[in-house]
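Are you able to produce any protein sequence you like plus the matching backbone structure tokens because I've never seen that pairing?
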Amino acid sequence: MKKHRLSVILITKNEADRVEACLKSIVDLADQIIVLDSGSTDETVSICKQYTNDISITDWPGFGKQKQRALDKATCDWVLSIDADEALDDEMKQAITNLLSQDCIEETSYRLPWGVTLYGTTLKYGRSARAVLRLFQREGSRYTLDEVHETVVPAPGKTGKLGGLLLHYTHRDYGHGLNKAAQYAWLGSQKYARKGKKSKGLWLALLRGIWTFFHIYFIRRGFLDGSVGFIVAMTYAQVNFNKYVGLWLIEQKRS
């Protein structure tokens, strides 16, 4: 028997081809589904209306601020933050069900193992082999307000880890992956500039890119994911290089 209520928060824009799989994976768990859409021009909102009436159309202030807006609307004691290109697998759904059925939950937050799936391969190594903090007690939690790569700051207490996978279908195709990588790199440049981080020159940008590839492909064993692991390591290396080049160019414009 369920002892704790769950709010699911989701931000969207033009995700009609992926959002239904996400919603189907959480609809049986959620007591409240909150969607913030920042101006979809496809059928995203219509699809979401089949699963919830709690939909708001908003501007786009950046990832951190948008997710905080969604969190502010949550009313249940636990919150699951999920993206439109993600879905819970059956083992993860059962793990959350079991957790919410406990009388007393000692942890205040939980990490969910990521199942990054690209080009037909679910990656097990490299930077994809990590667990992301997505399930947390509402009271006392907040988001950082970063433009990109925002994080949850949970209420003080222990952080646990659940079984199963949070499947992440990050790219529709290679072209979409390239566009997403470019967007994230430039947002990262602006974030670093706002926080006063220094680029320290173009040569260091190059070295950062090389180190990123080495770290993901060799140290974190991305090579065990085969050819897709190589593509992913190269993509992350390019993003890191571009991020610091963008920061350097911002610095040049200011000087």
Remarks:
- The chain has a mean pLDDT of 96.
- The first helix runs from residue 19 to 26.
